[in-house]
Amino acid sequence: MKMTIGEISEKTNLPESTLRYYEKMKLIKVIRDKNGRRDYADSDVEWIKFIRRLKETGMLLKDIQQYSELRYMGDSTMPERISILRLHRRYVLEQQRKWNGYLQNLDEKIQYYEQSIKLQNT
């Protein structure tokens, strides 16, 4: 099923301007119909959602561009794509450990305040 930019915007929950930006940055390649309008395929929805997840997990735009370029080159680039994803996975785990430390610190501070309030009220 083919979709317009408005339809894919709804399915991916991304504004049309972001989709145009992704196209400009060569993260997505969109076929155009005979009138020059963007004509998205169903497979573009999951790809766009994956790009968003990469961005939300901190992957740099240049790395997403490289991954995208390899993706569009076909299955023969899978080893290179795996390497990019493995490297990014290590980064995500590192960030997760850092955020777990921040969360523990917050929990300790909350616990300290709760104990202090209890002592004041006794």
TrEMBL record:
Coiled-coil blocks: none
Domain HTH merR-type: 2-70
Keywords attached to this entry: DNA-binding
GO MF assignments: DNA binding; DNA-binding transcription factor activity
Pfam families with a match to the protein in the record: MerR_1
Superkingdom field: Bacteria
Keyword match Membrane: no
Name assigned to this protein: Transcriptional regulator, MerR family
Organism, as annotated: Marvinbryantia formatexigens DSM 14469
